[in-house]
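Worked problem 6 (solution included).
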Amino acid sequence: MAAMPRRGESLATTNFELHFFDFFPNPLSFPFMQQGARCYLWIWENLLREYVEEMVAYCHAGEFDSLRETCDELRWQLLDVQGRNIELCSILEAKEVQLQLYRDELNQSKREVAEMKHKMESEKAMLQWALYMLMFICVLCVSVVVGKNYLG
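Solution. The predicted structure is:
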């Protein structure tokens, strides 16, 4: 039997061949076998390579399916988040409008209070002037009455 190939060396390119009888000691159990028929390793190598390629393709297909499912799930989550953001934006806009209305009402109330304060101050000034005039008239009346009593 020939020497085994070195690691990394292709089996098909070496002189290494394997007899079918080395794997199956009783070749008569296989009706297609005749005395002296041999099964070379490159046939098994090709079958094994095809099997490995099919398995790799199957695994990659599974990975791609998994990635597609993940992408689809992330797309749905993104759509949900975008929908929630739209809802929150509409709520925020409504609250901003309501806040602006409250601010306008507060400013209107401040103006009304300022007008009332100004009106009260002007009325207070008028009342003070009227009170001073009344006191002046009272003092004049008292002095006229007292003056008539002394002179008269």
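Discussion: The first helix runs from residue 20 to 23.
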